[in-house]
Give the backbone structure.
Amino acid sequence: MSNFEVLAEGLQFPEGPIAMPDGSVILVEIKRGTLSRVHNGKVEVIANLGGGPNGAAFGPDGAVYICNNGGFHWHDLGGLTVPGNAAHDYTTGRIERVDINTGKFERLYDKIGDNRLSGPNDIAFEKSGAFWFTDLGKNWPRSQDRGGLYWAKTDGSQLKEASYGHVGLNGVGLSPDEKVVYAAETETAKLWAFDITGEGEVAQSPLGGHAGRCVAVQPYHCFFDSLAVQADGDVCVATILNGGITTITPAGVSTHTPFPDLITTNICFGGADMRDAYITLSSTGKLIKTRWPEPGLKLNFAPY
């Protein structure tokens, strides 16, 4: 898609955009370790979080909740910024709550039972005020931590593991009726649907292993990153290698809209008609804005 506006450049691997009513966009800069705000071409830091702040969303209390993956080792490939294995100073992934007025933040979760969160990635709030998030896992030189789907309360009192064992769950979002949680699996380029059966619970596989229904898989080599849901229920998944946004219907039909970055990572919606699409072109450090054919689904607790 050639018709777009560049809102910011020089960002340090931006992801997790949140459209604001004043036209600004709150996002994370994973390599920089910050929650930042882009407004009128300028970038200001809201909070210095460290590690690898990834997905971001407003909660019911007006705070921004962050999936912090704990940090990556970074590579420069011909001028493109590319994440790799766990950072040398990596300790754990975690969920953080940020007061955007003061920049103060607190850690809510960093483990479930005796197991640490490896690399929390993306987050979506349900109407109840609880949230779903994905854990991408973590890559090491000779091994890989698996990931999963989780549900948690904002006061730090309860964390549930809904599904575990995936090869890197990334983007997450709820269907308009909140009966389904969608999650994009990075390395397989599969979109999974999890049928919600209770509070923080999803239908399990009759064969054991991780839960979920495979909605779609791409017929070519690519990776899936974050996602956003349209008002009509279609799922827009940011796509790596085949850089752009792949829109997938609940029936599994895929169409692709290209953008000029091999590592297109996130899309969010805003504007009066919810057709302003904000997209992060992460390896080139850009935030862009374009008009989308369909309106996005209004997120719970979003400020617009």
Observations:
- The first strand starts at residue 5 and ends at 8.
- Residues 5-291 form a domain with the Neuraminidase fold (CATH 2.120.10.30).
- Residues 114 and 235 are 34 Å apart (CA to CA).
- The mean pLDDT is 96.
